[in-house]
What does this fold into?
Amino acid sequence: MAHLTKDYMGLNVKVVEHRTSTDVLLAMEQKECDAVWSDINAFRQFVDRGLLRPVARSAVVVKGIEHLPVDADLTTDPTGKAIMGMFGKTGVVGRCYLATPGTPDNVMNILREAFQKMLKDPETLADAKKIKLELQFTSADECLDAVKFCSINRRRF
It folds into this structure.
C-alpha cells in the first residue's frame, strides 16, 4: 500500500521496507522515516499515546478513525482508485479462517457460530481490551463478497 499511495497520490516519498513494527518505530524515533503504512491495530498504543497520528484509512470502518479520508478518494487516477479500492476491500476480510473444500455445512455452521460467540465472551473481550485490540466479526457472506469484488476487478489490470 505504501507504494500504491506513493504512485497514485503523487507523494514525493522514498519507501523504505522494515521487517517489524519495532524496526519502524526505531527508525521513526531516529528520524530515518516519517510515516508508516499499517493496520491501525499494529500501532494503536502509539496512536493512543499521541506518538503517531493516522492521516488516512482504507474503506474499512475502524472505530476511532472513521472520520479520516479514504485512501482511494485521495487520488484522481482511475487505475489508482480501482486498485486502492480493491486493497481496501481485502481489509473487510481481516484475518480469515479457512476450511478445506467439501467441509460439511454443519461443521461450517458450528465454526461460524463459535466465532460469533467468541466475540461476545466477556473473558475474550477483556483480554482484547487489555491489549487494545478491537475485535470485529465479518460474516462469511461479507468476506465472500469482498473476494468476489477483488476477483472481478483484478481482471481489469
About this structure: DSSP finds seven helices and no strands in the chain. The two ends are 17 Å apart (CA to CA). The mean pLDDT is 81.
